């Protein structure tokens, strides 16, 4: 009676399985397969957002075991073995019945489980040794296929047109941050945003993103990013504050993500309440410096270069140009990175940061976000999403980075 809304092609799923198996052999060489728990990673490997666990053996077919949603999974998933379960103790028997028995050593994507469920899993599978497979999963998702890149390019195009071409005509000085946020949501939904942003980091949340007028951009933040914000409330430190008005002569920063078909792009657009000719020199110089850093990273981000090298070069530019104070945040808001991987979550591997020494590869996607805090005034800067190609980085969220004047 029903048909799947969409399906991931079989060859795409096969590529993902092969990539995860290859990285698993390097990361956890004793493991005979990997257990995957989070809905998002299950979707990545099967095509359905199931509540349960996927067993992907090094040899043999995957087995998808679900607490809920078996009928939907049978419509959407590109795997043959889909069965219900109630207790983790059932997993070995279900896998054996499917012809893909569990091995003595099992890798698990441990970030997909709470401590409580992880402890329960270990108890129920006490005959097996569990090792971490998280890094293998991160490496597999790090390099995108043409199937994934095509979605992200469409996402980036919608993202840029929404923030750069359309939103400036819907907002004006005198609006509150909250009003601006609501207009941004309206434009995003009109252009296909699917209504959810996902974070990979444990207990991190994102709803639309950050809307910061003037010195809100330097307001103390608990979010792991350089742009501060007051947010809705101490319980909802996202979007924009209903009592903070975007005043004439102030910058306005929108650091908000777009998502279609599960894939994200990240972008920060800066606006100025007034004509561009009235932008104060301190704000203009800081913003132009951030564009310069982004251009430098884009120029250097070629296959074989490491994210750590890009980060070190960015810090060196900030020191040489007199922008060390406030680069990537003021005071406690300062963060030790200048960008991050992006895909099915906003914050994928790798970070553009110290210690990330795995060379860039074609097909990787990075959000590059140089920001500069101007004390007592605002946070300014840019963020755009880039695709690493064989010849370098290509921006997929537009090619205009200047601060947009709104009168």
TrEMBL record:
InterPro entries named in the record: Creatin/AminoP/Spt16_N (IPR029149), Creatinase/aminopeptidase-like (IPR036005), Creatinase_N (IPR000587), Pept_M24 (IPR000994), Peptidase_M24B (IPR050659)
Xref: Pfam families: Creatinase_N, Peptidase_M24
Organism domain of life: Bacteria
Domain Peptidase M24: 150-390
Residues of the Creatinase N-terminal domain: 16-137
PANTHER family linked to this entry: AMINOPEPTIDASE, XAA-PRO AMINOPEPTIDASE P-RELATED
Protein name: Peptidase M24
Lineage summary: Bacteria, Pseudomonadati, Thermodesulfobacteriota, Desulfovibrionia, Desulfovibrionales
């Amino acid at each position: 009676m029903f048909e799947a809304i969409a399906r991931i092609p079989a060859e795409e799923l096969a590529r993902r399985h092969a990539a995860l198996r290859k990285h698993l052999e390097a990361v956890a060489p004793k493991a005979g397969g990997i257990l995957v728990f989070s809905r998002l990673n299950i979707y990545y490997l099967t095509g359905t957002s199931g509540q349960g666990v996927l067993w992907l053996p090094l040899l043999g077919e995957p087995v998808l075991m679900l607490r809920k949603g078996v009928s939907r999974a049978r419509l959407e998933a590109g795997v043959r073995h889909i069965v219900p379960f109630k207790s983790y103790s059932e997993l070995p028997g279900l896998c054996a019945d499917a012809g893909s028995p569990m091995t003595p050593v099992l890798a698990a994507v441990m970030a997909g489980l709470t401590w409580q469920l992880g402890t329960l899993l270990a108890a129920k599978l006490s005959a097996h040794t569990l090792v971490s497979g998280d890094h293998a999963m991160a490496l597999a998702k790090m390099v995108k296929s043409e199937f994934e890149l095509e979605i992200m390019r469409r996402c980036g195009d919608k993202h840029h047109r929404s923030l750069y071409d359309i939103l400036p005509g819907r907002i004006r000085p005198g609006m509150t941050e909250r009003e601006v946020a609501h207009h941004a949501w309206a434009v995003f939904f009109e252009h296909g945003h699917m209504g959810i942003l996902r974070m990979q980091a444990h207990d991190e949340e994102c709803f639309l993103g950050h809307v910061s007028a003037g010195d809100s951009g330097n307001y103390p933040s608990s979010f792991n990013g350089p742009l501060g914000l007051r947010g809705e409330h101490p319980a909802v430190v996202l979007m924009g504050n209903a009592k903070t008005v975007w005043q004439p002569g102030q910058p306005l920063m929108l650091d908000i993500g777009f998502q279609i078909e599960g894939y994200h792009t990240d972008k920060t657009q800066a606006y100025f309440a007034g004509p561009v000719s009235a932008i104060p020199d301190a704000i203009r110089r800081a913003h132009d410096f951030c564009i310069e850093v982004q251009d430098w990273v884009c120029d250097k981000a070629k296959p074989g270069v490491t994210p750590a090298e890009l980060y070190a070069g960015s810090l060196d530019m900030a020191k040489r140009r007199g922008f060390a104070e406030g680069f990537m945040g003021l005071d406690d808001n300062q963060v030790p990175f200048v960008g991050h991987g992006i895909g099915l979550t906003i914050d994928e591997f790798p970070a553009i940061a110290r210690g990330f020494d795995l060379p860039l590869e074609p097909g990787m996607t990075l959000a590059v976000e140089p920001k500069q805090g101007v004390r007592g005034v605002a946070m300014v800067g840019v963020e755009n999403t880039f695709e690493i190609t064989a010849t370098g980085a290509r921006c997929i969220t537009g090619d205009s980075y200047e601060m947009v004047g709104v009168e």
